[in-house]
Fold these 2 entries.
Entry 1:
Amino acid sequence: QVASLAERYESAFDIGAAVEPYQLNGRQGKILKHHYNSIVAENAMKPISLQPQEGQWDWEGADKIVEFARKNDMNLRFHTLVWHNQVPDWFFLDENGNPMVDEIDAEKRDANKALLLERMKTHIQTVVERYKDDVDSWDVVNEVIDDNGGLRNSPWYQITGTDYIKVAFETARKYAGEEAKLYINDYNTEVPSKRDDLHNLVSQLLDQGVPIDGVGHQAHIQIDWPSIEETRESFEMFTELGLDNQVTELDVSLYGWPPDNAYETYDDIPAEDFERQAVRYDQLFELYEELEADISSVTFWGIADNHTWLDDRAEQYSGVGIDAPFLFDENYRVKPAFWKVID
Ligand code: XIL
């Protein structure tokens, strides 16, 4: 039995993995119990999974994950209360079934906004009341910043402005209680322009008394990008605001963006790529450890290379679905990166 990742970093931060309910059994279940002390649902707790139709709830997958965390004494991250993806359309339809974003009448626009915020509050209240005793950290809103500057122009934003963000945090706090940790989660938080937009938004919200505890840095990154310096800078800027940082969706892709030159099979990946990836993981965890007072958890967006959302992205651009972002290979064997991280 190799040394445990969670034990190695026990005094610094949690080590987590994103899971689908079916991954809790067998080989993957064993790896989870040995190496991780935190889990998050890869898809099972998103709005489209929990409330596909208004008032019709499906708790099955989410409950399984909660049960596993409870039984194995693991921390639980909740992902995600509010997002523009994987949210069912019914949220954004008015009483007549028309898209709210098309409304031009000012009075009806106000009514739509009120209706959407009401639906959001009901969703948050219902979910939080069910899981509040089990969840430690909540992704309250996900990906609200636009890559090209400012706020993401999602239906949430078009219909409510920034009010949905404020109301989401206030509602989560109201039902989850004071001990709950509430996060604003996003990707490319290392990129200076996006980082600054997020920093501005969070500063404004904090000034208005909005209850935000921390920033979730997704960290869908590459071997050579972004730089360690930018990564450090981002953590430090949010720490200075008095916030916690969590690394919430870590994976280190072998490819650039877009991933248009993917290998055809896993066996085609040269050993050299795994060595470069190991150096990258080494530098990252060295940084995380150095900043351990400012980082409360580091979660990978999967367990082993046999199951990663990056395969779908590689396939979209290359026609082949191979990436290898984790510490365990497609047969759950430890990779060079594992030895760097455990060292
Ligand atoms: C991804 C899942 O991994 C996929 O299985 C699903 O098809 C799409 O969503 N940012 C997020 C995550 O916040 O929820 C996304 O997860 C990956 C990007």
Entry 2:
Amino acid sequence: MNTTILGYPRIGARRELKFATEDYWAGRGDADALTKTGAELRAAVWTGLREAGLDAIPSNTFSFYDHMLDMSVLVDAVPERYRHLTGFDRYFAMARGVQDVPPLEMTKWFDTNYHYIVPEIGPGTRFRLADGSAAKPLAEYREAKALGIETRPVLVGPFTYLLLAKPAEDAPNGFRPLDLLDGLVDVYAEVLERLAGSGAEWVQLDEPALVADRTDEEIDALARAYARLGRLTSRPRLMVATYFGTIGADALRVLAASRVEAVGLDFVAGPGNLDVLASVGGLPRKTLVAGVVDGRNVWRTDQRRAKATCAALLGLVDRVAVGTSCSLMHVPIDLDAETPLDPDVRGRLAFARQKVGEVVALGRALREDVPPSADIPAPSAGVDPDVRARLDALGDGTRRGDRATRFAVQRDALGLPPLATTTIGSFPQTREIRRARADRRAGRITDEAYTRLMKDEIARVVALQEDLGLDVLVHGEPERNDMVQYFAEQLDGYAATEHGWVQSYGSRYVRPPILHSDVARPRPMTVEWATYAQSLTSKPVKGMLTGPVTMLAWSFVRDDQPLADTARQVALALRDEIADLEAAGIRVIQVDEPALRELLPLRDADRPAYLRWAVGAFRLATSGVADSTQIHTHMCYSEFGEIIDAIGALDADVTSVEAARSHMELVADLRAAGYENGIGPGVYDIHSPRVPAAEEMEENLRRALRAVEPARLWANPDCGLKTRAYPETEASLRNLVTAARRVRADV
Ligand code: GLN
Ligand code: ZN
């Protein structure tokens, strides 16, 4: 093994997998058609990798939905409620649910924006190799072999698989999925033996869980698992891959002492790996797969640096293979598909296909000791002296008045009742809205016609909110395709791609914008819409912005300076936008940070520094306003326990959070953590079309009132309404206003 990658995008260059899957779901295509598309996509990837000159090619990195779900099916970790179904029906029911059968939970894959299907494991789970010799990794191995391509099947390792699982609902307290490791390892042993029987030379076991903090007990379990797999007499050679950070020294010691033949380390997200490797005395008699080509970001590799890293490693291990830092599934497929990109930006980019080329070139440079390929151009539009000077001059981002002063001033200025009602920002995105945006992009309607359509929509949404009796209104965000892309398109320093899709989950792909240079705001971005909405009503209209952390989390961000510096540049642009909104008469401004939890580092030790800059960027953006201007923030999609102090440190006047599914617990938690500003716990779950009764929301509000005084409690849904339809939205909001009024009458 000289050159390899840990995985490759499976969605197809033209999103073939999405269309085939959605056709199958909609009954437009049958199982055979979907199966055929899968086989074509796999064949295209394998042959493409071979033609690129890669010498060790992975397989089983394809998935019809998710690779963790594939593992659950492989080892028969299928909860009872799906067992009456078979084949694709069972598989997709586990992923998406069917009538009366809820799906498995879905959650984020480490600190990426990819989401996996969470295995449900209970004491009754009996692992076994479900499909015998027809099992997916075996079938794919043979399929590639039939094309004349030897591959290395990739499996999520048993340790990581169980650590990412959750206990089944009926599991007794204290049960941990990891308790079942030995039984699971038996199944892996069988898979390895069968793969060896089919001729597989190598297998890759992914253990990214080793880059997070691990207990001694977990490390013992790891040692047991790999001792057992290592001892198998008939097995392929084993490569254990870690990625997304620096491996723990204890974990690396276990792998070093085991019989596995190769270890993969991430030298992009885990620069500490070199030290750890030295501290454990290297990996004698093993191959190190050096992840020097970034699988998570879109930048070209600095080949000189990568080559130097590999050369340094040769002192610590016997053999070095060049690899990617992680699977390439996190980056778009092909830069060559992008025609309109600015050549300066393009010159700095590499997508999956280009990164394979980099791995191959580096492998050659290392073997033949030829100099690596050309240098990467520096960002020519990279440095904006104006932005930098202003940032240097800005202070620490503290509001003028303290929170008690602001509370009093805002109460008088806004005149809101206790339990003020509002929404999170977006209203349903109807077919007409989407069509108007598409028509404009395609040049089928003029800008004036487009503006007219959006303003009509805003007027409708404002009138509806007046009719519902909400207290703080929104314009409804009809002009936004996506809360990050909308701003990225208007800021300097960002570029968009046309085909740069990456899988977020299942058939949902996103096209993250590329933040390539210093960020600046050439002109106001939201003021026209917000002031138009405000002109239609005497109630306050809430301006709506996306916060700096979220602007980075859902983009590909330049890696030539610390994220913290880039966050401050985005924050400065937002600060200017907020000043313009304020000057235009907008008295309430919300800065959404749903991704604040998402970027939290995997290791405890790295968290304080992250939270410091994340909070600092938010405060830089929001602290320029008068005491009378009310700053809101909104968070969702996560457990907030680990960032509860940070939420307080943001010092927003009002924080709205997802809470409906956890029965308002967060309100008490926030207060217990010393949070004293306004709180808007989502009193109903917008992720389902269900219309909750007023009584149910009333109950939630009363529960919240046990922990917060009425003047600081807000009544709102738990997220934006853009994915909902109007009938349920109207009915739910009507009940919400009723609930708030009833409770208000009693306080
Ligand atoms: N203001 C955004 C909306 O309502 C917030 C979206 C989000 O939290 N993800 O759509
Ligand atoms: Zn939300």
